[in-house]
From TrEMBL:
InterPro entries: BphY/WalK/GraS-like, HAMP_dom, HATPase_C_sf, HATPase_dom, His_kinase_dom, HisK_dim/P_dom, HisK_dim/P_sf, Sig_transdc_His_kin-like_C
PROSITE patterns cross-referenced by the UniProt entry: HAMP, HIS_KIN
Pfam family, one: HAMP
Lineage of origin: Bacteria, Bacillati, Actinomycetota, Actinomycetes, Kitasatosporales
Annotated ranges, domain HAMP: 186-238
Keywords, sorted A to Z: ATP-binding, Kinase, Membrane, Nucleotide-binding, Phosphoprotein, Signal, Transferase, Transmembrane, Transmembrane helix, Two-component regulatory system
Transmembrane residue ranges: none
Protein name (Swiss-Prot/TrEMBL): Sensor-like histidine kinase SenX3
GO molecular function per UniProt: ATP binding; phosphorelay response regulator activity; phosphorelay sensor kinase activity; protein kinase activator activity
Amino acid sequence: MVFAFLFVALVTASSTAALTYREARNSVLHATQDTAVASFRDHVRGHPSLLPVDPGKLPTYLQELAALGKPRPWFVFAEYGTTVRVSSGSSPVSTVVTPALRERIKSRPYGAFQRVVKDGVPYLAVGMPVLLKSQPGMKLDSGLVLYAVLALDEEKMQIEALLTAARNGAVPGLAIALVPALLAARSVLRPVRELRRAALSMGSGKLDTRIAVRGRDELSDLARTFNETAAGLERSVTELREAEERARRFASDVSHELRTPLAGMLAVTEVLDEDAAGLDPDTARAVRLISTETGKLAVLVEDLMEISRFDARAAELNSDEVDVAETIRRTLANRHWTGRVGARLPDGIRARLDPRRFDVVMANLVGNALRHGGDPVAVTLRREAADDGSPLLAVEVTDGGPGIRPDVLPRVFDRFFKADAARTRSAGSGLGLAITAENVRLHGGTIHAANGPGGRGAVFTVTMPLDGGPRGRSREGE
């Protein structure tokens, strides 16, 4: 605001100084110009000895004219035809008289003038043709043209003095304008700064932030509105948090209570599966359907309990230093995927991570590629470097399927999100990729979903720090 105030003051002072300077400059130049032109015209017309042209007498006549110059003596030059070039000084021809001035004089029998700058010095050049008096009311050009050249160095000094005075007058004005600018900034910007600090505080999660209200102007009304909005937002967020906490507690309690009856149901369905071959076909299909759905329900309950632990910030890492390639091979072997998945797993990459949670990450990504992607499915392990130079572990899982639609990509890690039939997770709990993302974040890493070249095949990339996640805890410390 101070800069804006000073800018306006600067523009105003500069404009005033520029207009004053321009008017004063024009006044000085026009006064000198009018005096010189009128004086030269009168002397040329009233001089009796110019015609007929006598080259021998012309220098004397020109020196007399030069001495009569106003406001100061001139340098006078005479041009007659193409041969006679005479002056009142030492040089017969003036470099200040331009071809443009000569052309203007041809069409103006009463003379013309021009301001010219030569070697940094301004000059006034006045051209006047000498006319013949042939008969009353008619004047003919004699062919003789006189030029008066006047140096405007004195006028230049006057104009420079005016410019200095205008500039020196503008500087104190700016200094004086700074005082009300500071006062205005203090009274206006202080509430704005307080509002900005309060907004930043609320943005960081401190919803109880309020602003002190002073006065009854527009800024105080804005502060009251901010306080009312903040109070309403705090109430709404508190209610939402309480509702979310109740929903999480409900899901956790229900999942926990379901585990015991589900364990009994799974034991019964295993027995029924063994005896299904001896039952009639319709009963056998029903038994197998019950067994399958009971297994899905058990997976859903376990996943819900895992998500509840993440939501309650109760999930922890049991970190250990492991050979990452060997850990991935073990994941593939335990699920009988070794022959179905291509693996590029260089040895020698060791990292601190939670083996159980890393196994869940790899199992969910590879299982997802096998169920919903297409051959070939591959796992690639490599070492990378972060922007700050710290070492990273990078694992990439790719498949040869149709890829993920662009509208689905931003939501693949959402809970219970289901895409179309080509990428659905309806065979599982709908929480697999969400749990995967939570486990990666728990390690201090990132996970990214994309499509391969040409949009063919899904590509899931996991990066983790080699030295363990920010919430890691070594087994040796347990």
